[in-house]
Design brief:
262 residues; alpha/beta; Purple Acid Phosphatase, chain A, domain 2; 14 strands; globular
Length: 262
């Protein structure tokens, strides 16, 4: 099975980049399932029903989330009702939406997906290690292929989770920091891993934000309203090839596509 996982979609520029290049990537790589982190799809922070519709319309089959998924007014009712979106599973009981599930690919195969959020330098949530292990085990009862999106700040926390789930999850993929790392590998001959898949959004920016606004915030230490940058965009992703029978990853490859959009 060939799965494309797309890095954090950032605002309108990211949505436009998806629409411009994703269909060709899916055809070129014969992709069976496309997943994208969409917690920043609306204005660079949060997600709404309308922005998610654009993401799905570009060819994404499933959206994963993170700590900003609640940051728009209509986020909670949307997250509660959308059956093609998973939010971090290690939020407290009663949190709207679901954090894991089984999803059918275009070829009729079944894939389990878990979304987790880290705790280092982020708000307190339940243990991603304990919750992740429980949910991966649960999903493996129904399918051999289980992917984990770990949305976290700390490199060490992501890598530790990769090793913790190695041999069980088909892939542990980091999101949130918007900078694609070059450490893709297969752990214990089974689990594809990368510390951060990257971002889909403006290339001439500070993780998607206009450079002058981000620089001013760091220099002055005063609050500045962030706005998505404009100009050429990049789509960061990873292409996974997974053995249908064993659920083991056969390869993980970084994918980068650039656009001229704004």
């Amino acid at each position: 099975m060939r799965i494309l996982f797309v890095g954090d979609v950032f605002g309108r520029p990211g949505r436009r980049a998806l629409a411009e290049v994703l269909p060709d990537l899916v055809r070129e790589h014969n992709v069976e399932l496309t997943i994208a982190n969409g917690e920043n799809a609306a204005g660079g922070i949060g997600i709404t029903a309308s922005t998610a519709s654009e993401v799905f319309g570009a060819g994404v089959d499933l959206i994963t989330g993170g700590n900003h998924i609640w940051d728009k007014r209509d986020s909670i009712p949307f997250v509660s009702s959308c059956d093609r979106l998973v939010r971090p599973a290690n939020y407290p009981p009663g949190t709207p939406g679901v954090g894991h599930g089984l999803f059918t690919t275009r070829n009729g195969n079944t894939v389990g997906v878990v979304n987790l959020q880290g705790r280092v330098f982020m708000q307190a949530v339940d243990c991603p290690f304990r919750v992740g292990a429980e949910l991966v085990s649960e999903l493996l009862e129904s399918t051999s292929i289980v992917l984990v999106d770990i949305h976290a700040e700390a490199t060490a926390e992501k890598l530790a989770l990769g090793w913790y789930l190695a041999g069980r999850a088909s892939a542990v993929l980091g999101t949130h920091t918007h900078i694609q790392t070059a450490d893709e590998r297969i752990l214990e001959g089974h689990t594809a891993y990368i510390t951060d898949v990257g971002m889909t959004g403006p290339e001439e920016s500070v993780i998607g934000v206009k450079t002058e606004l981000s620089v001013a915030r760091f220099v002055t230490q005063l609050p500045h309203r962030f706005e998505p940058a404009t100009g050429p965009c990049v789509l960061n992703a990873v292409l996974l090839v997974i053995d249908d029978a064993t659920g083991g990853a056969l390869s993980i490859e970084r994918v980068n596509a650039r656009t001229t959009g704004s």
